[in-house]
Design goal:
The protein contains 14 helices and 25 strands. With 541 residues, it is α/β, with parallel strands linked by helices. The strands form seven sheets. Strands 1, 2, 10, 11, 12, 13 and 25 form a seven-stranded mixed beta sheet that branches. Strands 7, 17, 18, 19, 20, 23 and 24 form a seven-stranded antiparallel beta sheet that branches. The radius of gyration is 22 Å and the shape is globular. The model has no long low-confidence stretch (mean pLDDT 96). It binds flavin-adenine dinucleotide (FAD).
């Protein structure tokens, strides 16, 4: 077969990869190969905002990583689902639109501007990208844009449970916040979402679909990269396996941009000889560059649920099955309204339980059902209910991703160490205590039958610690496993231009690249990274 060559190759068609590939084609005029390991994103369950709840615990569109047993969680191993589909996380996520806060990015910038030619990562520099990608259906101001490719909307439907939650938290003294991406994160309110009129605005739809039929863009689905080809210190190609199982190779004259997500990107780098030298040798891999930071510094947002059963038919229980599902579908088809317009979560909050005026330490999500991941699924009766999850937004715990073997088909060993750092556990317990009070505050209290977990009669530190260990799960935001860092930082895998150190022609542009996790959900930041990387390659920064 003739040697296949492109201007650039993007490895992983997720949130960041779709944006990077689309920009390089549309704005740079480049010929780009996008290799995506997962499936097509065209499926009704992926399109409709609440479809995630049908998929979260079992679907071909998700890849389920199971952590190694976590000693500090009494040996528990928990799941980390990741998108296995074009659009990646943006095709399967709950669509909550968050960017984090200016201090997140100003802190990155302070770390990264070690040398004079470092890229600018300050809030002002990244805000341009967030605003430019955004088509907001309510807000237009210094912080929000319209006319961008990604549709950002208020929830099309709000369940009454979510409203009672928002009122109860106001009853606890928190202000109503009309925009969590506005001047202040603090308070309670309704999120905005990356969807509109009952249709998800994934990176695949918003960016790639505009280029359908464009001969400059080649998208290969179910095509899994196995390793990068590095010759004389330069990344020149990718070895990948197509849908039929045949191994193939593609080459580039330009750059390779790795965007396979924070759990697979480090695996791919290590299989290519880029990583901690001893670990690579243990697996018989020839070392191309000793980069000890690859796979280290894994950060994820820990999330712990509080679940109450309801004393009436409130929320979304049974709304996705049987005659109720048909009625909801019909309402949507005929009138474009109803529950199908909701991603299943509408309300949330950002609070600091110990110092209300300081930056929030806890994000909360209000989900008007009994909501658990599959490893804790059976531990609470499935009935009408409400789940409030608390998330530590700036966790200090750090984990790692290591190779299980040198076989590309094997999943990596993932150890996120959620809540291992004592400050994370303390913050989580304070968050739980704060929101337990919301269940006991009107108008929510009148609808609560029983707080099932945690036991409201036992809120001492020891019992809450055990509750957190039993139920902590990922908020689905793994990050920072091939992070940018200043010159001289031995654990920095990338420079501030997202270039892999010691190798030419290779960048990482997904959530692996971030020096620290942003306070809030990570999809919009991932897309911003793809957007910036494309600018860097096109020399437009
Ligand atoms: C269930 C769930 C709910 C979430 N909810 C929200 C939310 O409401 N709001 C929010 O902001 N964020 C949310 N997130 C997080 C957000 O979606 C992710 O942080 C974001 O998608 C990460 O983008 P990425 O580009 O780093 O990686 P991804 O989007 O994960 O992209 C990686 C891509 O690489 C592909 N891939 C993997 N291995 C290979 C390989 N070997 N070869 C080729 N391709 C490969 C994958 O299939 C995937 O498409 C959620 C995530 C999940 C999973």
């Amino acid at each position: 077969m003739a040697r296949e060559e492109f201007d650039h190759i993007v490895v992983g068609g997720g949130s960041s990869g779709c944006v990077a590939a689309a920009r390089l084609v549309a704005d740079g005029g480049h010929r780009v190969l996008l290799l995506e390991g997962g499936h097509s994103n065209r499926h009704p369950l992926l399109d409709m905002p609440p479809g995630i709840f049908k998929m979260i615990n079992g679907s071909k569109f998700m890849d389920y990583h199971t952590t190694v047993p976590q000693p500090h969680l009494n040996g528990r191993a928990h799941d980390i689902p990741q998108g296995n589909v074009l659009g990646g996380g943006s095709s399967v996520n709950a669509q909550v639109y968050m960017r984090g806060r200016p201090s997140d990015y100003n802190a990155w910038d302070a770390t990264l501007r070690g040398n004079n030619d470092g890229a600018d990562w300050s809030w002002d520099a990244v805000l341009k990208h967030f605003r430019g990608m955004e088509d907001n259906n309510r807000l237009l101001n210094d912080l929000h844009g319209t006319g961008g490719k990604m549709q950002v909307s208020d929830p099309g439907h709000i369940d009454q449970m979510s409203r009672w939650f928002v009122q109860a938290v106001q009853g606890l003294g928190e202000p109503f916040n009309p925009d969590f991406n506005g001047p202040s994160q603090r308070g309670v309110g309704f999120y905005q979402f990356m969807n509109r009129h009952g249709r998800r605005s994934s990176a695949a739809y918003a960016f790639l679909s505009l280029l359908e039929g464009d001969p400059r863009l080649t998208v290969r689905l179910q095509s899994r990269a196995e390793r990068l080809i590095i010759q004389k210190g330069r990344a020149v190609g990718v070895v990948w396996r197509d849908k039929s199982g045949t191994q193939r190779e593609s080459f580039t004259r330009g750059e390779i941009i790795v965007t396979s997500g924070a759990l697979i990107t480090p695996k791919l780098l290590m299989l290519s000889g880029l990583g901690p030298a001893d670990h690579l040798r243990d697996h018989g891999i020839t070392v191309a560059a000793d980069l000890p930071g690859v796979g280290q510094n894994l950060i994820d947002h820990p999330e712990v649920p509080m679940i109450a059963t309801a004393n009436g038919p409130y929320g979304y229980f049974k709304q996705g099955v049987g005659w109720r599902m048909l009625m909801n579908g019909l309402q949507f088809k005929l009138f474009g309204s109803g529950r199908i317009l909701s991603a299943g979560v509408e309300a949330g909050a950002f609070v600091n339980p110990t110092d209300p005026e300081a930056e929030p330490t806890i994000q909360a999500f209000c989900v008007p059902i009994v909501y658990l991941d599959r490893d804790t699924l059976t531990l609470v009766e499935n009935t009408y209910g409400l789940t409030v999850t608390t998330v530590v937004v700036k966790p200090k715990s750090r984990g790692e991703v290591r190779l299980r073997s040198a076989n590309p088909a094997d999943k990596p060993l993932v150890s996120p160490n959620l809540l291992k750092h004592p400050e994370d556990m303390a913050a989580m317990i304070a968050g739980q205590r704060f929101f337990i009070r919301a269940f006991q505050t009107e108008p929510l209290a009148a609808r609560v039958k029983r707080l099932a977990i945690p036991d409201p009669a036992k809120l001492d530190d020891a019992t809450l610690t055990e509750h957190c260990k039993r139920f902590v799960k990922t908020n689905y935001h793994p990050a920072s496993t091939a992070r940018m860092g200043a010159d001289g930082d031995p654990m920095a895998v990338l420079d501030s231009w997202m270039r892999v150190r010691c190798v030419e022609g290779l960048r990482v542009a997904d959530m692996s690249a971030v020096p620290d996790i942003n306070a809030g959900n990570t999809n919009a930041p991932a897309m911003m990274l793809g957007d910036r990387c494309a600018d860097f390659i096109m020399g437009r920064a």
